[in-house]
Known about the structure:
Largest sheet: none
Structural class: mainly alpha
Low-confidence stretches: none
Order of helices and strands: HHH
Strand content: under 5%
Helix content: 55-70%
Shape: elongated
Number of helices: 3
Amino acid sequence: xxxIDPNHPAYRALWVRVLIVAVCFGWxxxxxxxxxxxxxxxxxxxxxxxxxxxxxxxxxxxxxxEKAAVEEKTAEPAETQDAPKNDA
Length: 88
């Protein structure tokens, strides 16, 4: 089960992926300083998972495939031949 979809356009920029990992580990430090080891371990686990998915195993999408998908989405749909005609 994948919790983070690395192919989402929001994760395309490197600074976004690094910021997510930094916030998770930063929150780990906050929880450790406040004396809550359970939440510190939970935040560290989230940071480790985010680092693995967003930094270590991240493979950027092929820009040619992505461009074709965007062009296909923005193209006007052709009229279908199966549509009923109103002759009355």
